[in-house]
Amino acid sequence: MSERTLTGTGATPRANVGTVVWYRPESALDDAEDVPTVDPDERSAEHERFEAARDQAREELEAERDQTAERVGEEEASVFDAHIQFLDDPQIDDGVASEIDDGTPAEYAVRDAFAGPIEQFEGMDDRMAERADDLRDVRDRLVRLLTDGERVDLSALPEGAVVLAERLTPSDTAQLDPDRVAGFATVTGGRTSHAAIFARSLALPAVVGVGPDLESIEEGATVIVDGETGELVVDPSQERLDALDTGPDVEVTHERVETTDGREIEVAANVGRSVELEGAVEQGADGIGLYRTEFLFLDREEPPSEEEQYEAYVEALEAFPEGRVVVRTLDIGGDKQIPYLDLPEEENPFLGERGIRRSLAPDADLFETQLRALLRAAADADGGTLSVMFPLVSTVDELEAALDAVDEVAADLDDEGVAYTVPELGVMVETPGAVFMADEFAARVDFLSIGTNDLAQYVMAAARENEHVAHLHDPLHPPVLRAIARSVEAAHDNDAWIGMCGEMAGSPELTELLVGLGLDELSMSAVTIPAVKENVSTLDHERATDVAARALNAVTRGDVTNIIEDQ
């Protein structure tokens, strides 16, 4: 058969080739409406069956939680804590009990009681929609136990298997053995799904959200899974197989690196969970260039306390006793929704109330608590330098209001006799407004950090998740490159350092271009750090500057690509 390519969302910068194994867990129940009726004198027994299944499910989940914590990390394992909580959710528990009281067998009662909450989550956006998979996971586990169904053992797949599925639940992905599985791809899902998070933690090639076309791939087919490009190549040609790059095979460097002519470049990691700190250290990160604090606020019923946040920030600082940890203040709205904050439904949330806009208005109390924790952590950590940056700042008024908030928190802590240190302060450059005002921003703060994912979206007016304009959402388009160059110049003219924490920074093939543009720091997923460090140590800064100058004079993306590829 001839080669063909399907596209989805790449979950991890790894690629591999293998043989398709379809994972289609069979439901023990169908959707038929002729559900058996339980006689009144047998309904107490159905309640007991449900309770027994729930107890057994809890035992399974606790065992899987421990296994996942050992293999992947405590943070990823915490999803099973959420599943255990779902077992005791009053809405679901009452729903099952009511169905059984009406004469519905326990397994059908579970199916029907979960239907409403699953539908409710599916109607939400992005990360919250993915909570529906958590509920499905718990539902299917209970139904399996109630019907004595057998569980597919994903840990015993043949070596070199590429798992294809409509979706993979946390329980499914926790079973995958990275030493045997070549990768996986799913019909549904996004970069923040549990499947994608597990893939990155295990450095497992994965493509999620491929869509219904994935169903066209037959069992036993040979496929390449490219988690960097988001491509799934079916029946690849020999030429394609020979050219397959399964990922960087370079030594980890724990020392800081510099170009051959002596310019030091800080290579840091992007993290969102404490479990990722260990991986960042292991991959040789110089520090943390983006600590996404919104992950502290997700998957819970109320915001984290000042003490919880303080401990998380200190933990990050202590992981890098000689490095810098750049913490981004709470960045919610847009594609990041938190139910307990009652975020508004907006027609275009990416152009709405998000980032610093919320911190200075409806979430001012949360912002104050976060700043208190950060200033305390800056003073108390044994090692590490704390830097704090504000997201989605577009005006000087916003920046000055944020700086005033820091001063007010410092004054309060001083009055209370609490030890604190005002950390380095910075601004994320993510909007055209920030680019045009970068000189004013840099005059007021210590550093700038370019978020290329959002910057490309706003400069090119191309939504990140819209496949119809995916070709425009690319930082190599000349307008985006020129926005980056303008921001770098503004920072250096005002004695501020400037970094980049978007996906662009973690592309080893772009390291020379980015160093040539003048960036002082590059921050990325930990898995790409070794390759980027190696590239930095082998390139000449003067030559890189020439490459960047030619790229900035290019007028099309194709011209930019040709300049990069010709090096």
Automatic annotation (TrEMBL):
Keyword Kinase: yes
GO terms classed as biological process: phosphoenolpyruvate-dependent sugar phosphotransferase system
UniProt-annotated binding residues for phosphoenolpyruvate: R292, R328, N453, D454, R464
Annotated compartments: Cytoplasm
This protein's name: Phosphoenolpyruvate-protein phosphotransferase
Domain of life: Archaea
Cofactor(s) of this protein: Mg(2+)
GO MF terms held by the record: kinase activity; metal ion binding; phosphoenolpyruvate-protein phosphotransferase activity
PROSITE patterns, per database record: PEP_ENZYMES_2 (PS00742)
Function summary: General (non sugar-specific) component of the phosphoenolpyruvate-dependent sugar phosphotransferase system (sugar PTS). This major carbohydrate active-transport system catalyzes the phosphorylation of incoming sugar substrates concomitantly with their translocation across the cell membrane. Enzyme I transfers the phosphoryl group from phosphoenolpyruvate (PEP) to the phosphoryl carrier protein (HPr).
Positions of the UniProt region annotated as Disordered: 26-71
Gene3D superfamilies: Phosphoenolpyruvate-binding domains, Phosphohistidine domain, PtsI, HPr-binding domain
Broad class of where this protein is predominantly found: cytoplasm
Example of a GO cellular component annotation carried by this entry: cytoplasm
Family as reported in the entry's similarity comment: Belongs to the PEP-utilizing enzyme family.
Domain PEP-utilising enzyme mobile: from-to ranges: 157-230
Active site: H194 (tele-phosphohistidine intermediate), C501 (proton donor)
All copies of domain PEP-utilising enzyme C-terminal, residue ranges: 254-539
Annotated organism of origin: Halogranum salarium B-1
Pfam families: PEP-utilisers_N (PF05524), PEP-utilizers (PF00391), PEP-utilizers_C (PF02896)
Biased composition (Basic and acidic residues): 40-71
EC number(s) stated in the UniProt entry for this protein: 2.7.3.9
Keywords in alphabetical order: Cytoplasm, Kinase, Magnesium, Metal-binding, Phosphotransferase system, Pyruvate, Sugar transport, Transferase, Transport
Binding site for Mg(2+): E430, D454
Reactions mediated catalytically: L-histidyl-[protein] + phosphoenolpyruvate = N(pros)-phospho-L-histidyl-[protein] + pyruvate
